[in-house]
Amino acid sequence: MKSPLAPGVRFLTSFSRDSWYRGSILLLTFLFYTSYHLSRKPISIVKSQLHRNCSELIPPAGLNISDNETWCDWVPFDQSNYKTLFGILDNCFLVAYAIGMFFSGIFGERLPLRYYLSFGMLMSGLFTCLFGLGYYWEIHSLLFYAFIQVMNGLMQTTGWPAVVACVGNWFGKGKRGFIMGVWNSHTSVGNILGSLIAGVYVSSAWGMSFIVPGLIIAATGVICFFFLVESSDQKHSETEPLLQNLRSNEGMINGSVTTESAEVIEEHAEAISFVGALCIPGVVEFSLCLLFAKLVSYTFLYWLPLYISNVVHFDAKDAGDLSTLFDVGGIVGGILAGLVSDYTGGRATTCCVMLLFAAPMVSCMLLLCGGLVNGPYALITTAVSADLGTHESLRGNSRALSTVTAIIDGTGSIGAALGPLFAGLISPSGWNNVFYMLISADILACLFLSRLVFKEVQGWCRSCVPQSRGFPDLTSFLNICC
């Protein structure tokens, strides 16, 4: 008597081939963008090692420190203007990232995503490693580190438009908020892993805090080249060529159908222009909202470990470990924002409510603040971008995802550049003033969504209030008041 099929095998075979493709795309793109964020994080951890309070440390034997109070610091960050220099490094990366992002989406629509992502990850790995090699080569030139940050910022722009386009190509709108909310946890997972990996080496040899993440992202670039399937169309075109040829032959028999199909394909094959993407309803509002939401998120990303080190007096490793609580909250917040927006259908309202609650919590409760700040950030950069990139006004043209995603994230990256810059300028006057800036940014992010929130609430009220033919004015009044 034969035994029944093993439960594990039965479970695996219950999934269709298409489901396996979808699962692999989610897993691979999650891995790819985790490595992007993992390689960005070390600079925030290493800052507190580049400039330390040398009076609390024991100098090496034979070192005369009577005329050298900054003997333990890394030149050129050994002077009193070290916060300004850190701000310069941050902005070299972030400004290059913001500018490059607007062009990255255009390239992403026109180049094979597999090649584009692989190239970007390999080059990001190279420049991340070069920053760390400055420790072993004993390079003390600010220009060297600034140049590396600029080039790394440009290379990192290859990631986001491409991975969002890949996921958007494989998944429809039904549960996009939840799926992308879970998937977008790669941002926080990358930050956490980057902090932990950098923390292992920061006190002994901070160069390895960059070299190890650099090697990791380069390795994922190789994986991308060998395994990424960009879209379901590519899967069908490469795995079912006979079916493609059969359909082509049938089209040759029916000339009118072939002509019409060719026109549709030709029309949809043309990538959308930059101005055309800006005209999609909601793109401008969500872009400006993300500018201020990302300002808050990236200020925490780049300055939270240094703040903890200065105020709570933790060492570099402990400060980096504690700062991961903000990112842990971000994972929960991204998933929660996706679930709520899927259930209610109100992407803008979900973002606005979470940002309003985040405003009074930016100076305390890292876990909760991380969820409320990164939840809207995650929702806008994933589900909202994918929704707008496949908006009904595009009439089925799927070649707008990368451009729309690049516009939204590029605008947000301007805020990401301004936040750490303002933090560096304001922090000498007191950390409380930095938190006032962050609260103001949260409120402004909400204001830019006010028109979309009003439209969503109006739509909900129309579905709840019965229409009255005899009293149109009363119905309109109720709709507006709701």
Automatic annotation (TrEMBL):
Subcellular localization: Endoplasmic reticulum membrane
Keyword Cytoplasm: no
Ranges annotated as spanning the membrane: 20-38, 84-103, 115-137, 143-171, 183-202, 208-229, 283-304, 324-341, 353-373, 434-454
Cellular component terms (Gene Ontology): endoplasmic reticulum membrane
GO annotation, biological process: phosphate ion transmembrane transport
Record keywords: Antiport, Endoplasmic reticulum, Glycoprotein, Membrane, Sugar transport, Transmembrane, Transmembrane helix, Transport
Domain Major facilitator superfamily (MFS) profile, first and last residues per copy: 28-457
Gene Ontology MF annotations: glucose 6-phosphate:phosphate antiporter activity
InterPro entries according to UniProt: MFS, MFS_dom, MFS_trans_sf, SLC37A1_2, Sugar_P_transporter
Lineage: superkingdom: Eukaryota
Reaction catalysed by this enzyme: D-glucose 6-phosphate(in) + phosphate(out) = D-glucose 6-phosphate(out) + phosphate(in)
Family: Belongs to the major facilitator superfamily. Organophosphate:Pi antiporter (OPA) (TC 2.A.1.4) family.
UniProt-recorded name of the protein: Glucose-6-phosphate exchanger SLC37A2
Taxonomic source organism: Takifugu rubripes (Japanese pufferfish)
This protein's encoding gene: slc37a2
